[in-house]
Specification:
The protein is mainly alpha-helical. The protein is built from 3 helices and no strands.
């Protein structure tokens, strides 16, 4: 898809978060962030699984707070902000 083509969205569907073109590759940032969040959530789940029988420490609380903060930040990004990035 070239930069000047109009994206046609079918009824009942929403616009994509980003469109990867020759000059705008912000979609790769979204994909990398999503994969990073998945890795963190899996590690967090494994850590909780290992700590079920043991006490939770302050490091576990810090991990939980930071994970929730990162997830909240990633899900609250305005699509217009992402599309305005110029990644070269």
């Amino acid at each position: 898809m070239s930069d000047n083509e109009e994206l046609k969205i079918l009824p009942g569907h929403s616009a994509p978060a980003a469109i990867i073109t020759a000059s705008d590759r912000s979609g790769y940032i979204i994909i990398a962030n999503a994969l990073g969040l998945i890795v963190v959530l899996v590690a967090f789940g494994l850590r909780i699984h290992m700590r079920i029988r043991n006490r939770f420490g302050s490091d576990d609380v810090a991990l939980a707070v930071s994970t929730v903060g990162i997830a909240q930040r990633l899900t609250s990004v305005d699509r217009r902000d992402v599309l305005s990035l110029n990644v070269r």
